[in-house]
Amino acid sequence: MPLKPWYKIEGLIPREDLRENRPLDASEFAVNLDHVRENRASSDYQDPEKFFSRTYLTPWLAEFAGQVTRRLSGIKTEANAVYNLATQFGGGKTHALTLLYHLAKNGEAARSWSGVRKILDRAEIKTLPTAAVAVFVGTEFDSLKGRGGDDGTPLRRTPWGEIAFQLGGESAFQIVAEHDAQFIEPKGDAIRAFLPKDKPCLILMDEILNYVSTYRSKGYHDKLYNFIQALSETARGEDNIVLIASIPASVMEYTAADEADEQRFKKMLDRLGKSVVMSAAAEASEIIRRRLFEWDERAVTPEGKIMLPKEATATCNEYADWVVENRTLLPTWFPIDNAREAFAASYPFHPAVISVFERKWAALPRFQRTRGILRLLALWVSRAYVEGFQGAHKDPLVTLGTAPLDDPMFRSAAFEQMGENRLETAVTTDICGKKDSHALRFDAEAAAEIKKARLHRKAAIAIFFESNGGVVRAEATLPEVRLAIADPSINIGNVETVLETLKADCYYLTVESTKYHFSLSPNLNKILADRRASVQPDRISDRVSAEIKKVFTRISGIDVRHFPEQSSDIPNAPVLVLGVLSSERSINEPSTLPLVEKIIRESGTSDRTYKSAVILVLADANHTLRDEARKVLAWEDIRDQEHNNLNEAQRRQLEENLKKAQRDVQEAVWRTYKHIVLLGKDNTLRQIDLGLVTSSSADGSKSMTGMIINRLKMEDEIQETIAPRFLVRNWSPVFKEWSTKAIRDMFFSSPLFPRLIDPNAIKATIKKGIIEGNFAYVGKTTNNGKYEPFYFQEIRPDTSDLEISDDTFLIQAQDAEQYLKDQEDPPVLTKIVIAPTNLTLKPKQGQTFTAKVLDRQDREMAISDISWTATGGSIDNGGTVTAAETAGNYIVTATVGTISNFVSFTVEDLFGDSDKDDEKLLPLPKQLTWSGEVTPQKWTQFYTKVLSKFSAHKDLKLKLKVEVMVDGDISDQKVEETKVALQELGLDNNVQRH
């Protein structure tokens, strides 16, 4: 269940002015005793009952007030007549003096006020004495103008004249009137004379050194010294007189003379009285509660502490449990074993908020401990309360990281306590105060959990406070930042995540190991930003190209081509090519995919044969890649040009950042190139999105080339080897003898075939297929009809014996087996078939006859040694007859060994019958044409009986038109197979599908 926001818990709410966003001015937290004496202070200080209700009596203050009232009651034991209040400027001295003023002035009437009973107990008295009170404030009393003289009262120009008048009126003043007029300090007799005789006397002297510094040139500082010394000696001799002096002004305003006088007064007062060092550090949170919050009087314990509501206690306990659970990650100074008490003591503030001022800011010379803290926290609480009820945030505690540094008033108050405002630029640039402040921007761009918790801003603010803003050397450690901003609802690991982001981009944050502080000087990030702005675009483009080449390296079997711009930039060869397009040609650019299509399908001005061999990799948007390239160039420029101007820490940081930038730019290449395009099995472009890829998650691939090849292997687009059965299943129907070159090329030209990473891997497939009897490897047939070489089953070659060429072939197993049978039982020639038959020739006309030699099973035998003879005309060894001039019937005979056969032909009589002279003299036709349909059953007979008669004629032209009508669609695979077969025959592969 979520913890309830602090501002919604009843019983402890901010004061009305804070709830209404009207926090008191800094001056309101600085009590002025003269203003209280003159009844012109704010009601918080002027109304004694209200003042006591808002004052937490620390053990020290209760003890001190008890001693003073005890002495005023006439008891000397354990009570001094003279006190020197020593504490830091703004540490609560005047607040303590004001408490004693009200107590002494009101006496027994103060008994019912908050905390007074505690003072009585410490004083061990039953009745509060009413005393005459005199106040001297060194910042108020002007000895040149004097006080009075124009208001019916005598003119007082000296501290002793003013004190005498306040204690006894005009009559008392007259005792030292001459001393006042001549500016001569009174001694013991005169002092005792103006002291009241009927009541105790309390003399309060504040800011003594301020008066001393002002009038040193007139010698008044020595006179005041002498007066206080005499007054102290006098008070020590009386039973119910108390002198309390407060010396310091702001240490930052000391001169050498001031410091000398401060030591002189201190030594004198410490010798004659008691030095009281105020210490309220352990009670700071309770003081703050009283001053800034309203509470139910019934919730105050007898010790004066405020009891927390149950819901507030629940918050404290949950935070404390979280602290205990994460003790090893938190600072050792935090009281982890008493965590519940620590959170309860500081609620609604996180303990780190209160303690940082004592641990770190107390070292700042201008820091006003109590007054400064109250002023900052008043502004802080007011802003947080208003924002909480406006729904901006629901923080269970007021944590260090929620300080409203974006508020100019708060920022000014913080700088005032620091003593300078030179960090204004650092704060508004890196933390908040401007819309584009780094921490604000990082939160806006962060993951939901970090964004909701405002972790970047909180971490940066925590560093600012924990390191004193960098004014006095202090550092925020990683454990301190964790304690300050993490809580039970946040993954503590996110703290380091946001610190890394701040480290990488903030301009004034200095980091050494796990220690952080804001500096007045810009860090390397600022230098980097300036350098980045000066890097020229052409240098970025060159670096991007170089980094891409580093990532896309060539590996075995893969030809890598970088940045092709036209199809001719990719070779048309049976080898896998990975084309890496320029990052400028991202997949989102309209012109990119048309270029990809052209590269895959074309090679220069012609069609690409090996379309499947081309794999293209494309970039996503390249903004990140260019940004990383710009960054690494900027770091290199700083190294080359500004190295000598850097300190040792910056040089180490430069080296680390440069190495990181060099890694980041390469990782940007991996993340940018995430798209693969290649020819799919349907003969269209296929896109593969690699998703988010990094070098560390790329299956051990050292180059992106290897990673892509591995991915395509998983997709079965690329294979290392091919099973012999794959060739058998996909045997080309065009060829009885399939050339090894055509087979290899199919793996790089047909999208139906997987791509081979090594073209020579087909040799291993062939060898395995030979051994397993899937097919035989053969060379060209010799004159005697034998294959040379012939490898099948038992006849096993070495892979080196196999060639990939147009002159070596694979034949299917059944053909190989028949070949072997024929070799064992050679076919016997039994028949010769001659064509054409029944031919009529004109005198001297030429005609080529062909002969087929058949065995007993009418299988054609490969025999080329045929003897030809003719009875009419002449015939050559190729079977070409030149007809005789004389008409008649003649015979052509073909003979092989003892087997022969013949056909007859007729030579026409061109000069026979006179009735036919006209017909015989007609010119012979010059062209013979025929068109018609031939059924598949007659294709062979059509060739033998018709086409073979003209096959020897050099002008024979055969034009073939093929039309295939099928039911349904003709598959892309069938079309592609047809194109490949035509291409292998050297024919035009332009197949039309309608």
Describe the 3D structure.
The radius of gyration is 55 Å and the shape is rod-shaped. α18 packs antiparallel against α19. A hairpin with a 5-residue loop joins β27 and β28. Helix content is 41%, strand content 13%.
In short:
By secondary structure, the protein is an alpha/beta fold. It is 41% helix and 13% strand. The strands form 10 sheets. A 5-stranded parallel β-sheet has the order 3-4-5-2-6, with helices on both faces. A 5-stranded mixed β-sheet has the order 11-12-15-16-17, with helices on one face. Strands 19-23-21-22 form a 4-stranded antiparallel β-sheet.
Label the overall shape.
Answer: rod-shaped
Strand order of the largest sheet: 3-4-5-2-6
Into which percentage range does the β-strand content fall? Answer: 5-15%
What's the overall average pLDDT, rounded? 87
The end-to-end distance, rounded to whole angstroms, is 70 Å
Biggest β-sheet: count, sense, barrel? 5 strands, parallel
Number of helices: 38
Radius of gyration: 55 Å
The figure for the number of domains is: 5
Helix/strand class: alpha/beta
Tell me the quaternary state.
single chain
Please mark out the parts with pLDDT under 50 across 5 or more consecutive residues, or reply none.
Answer: 914-925
Helix percent band: 40-55%
Per DSSP E runs of 2 or more residues, the count of β-strands stands at 33
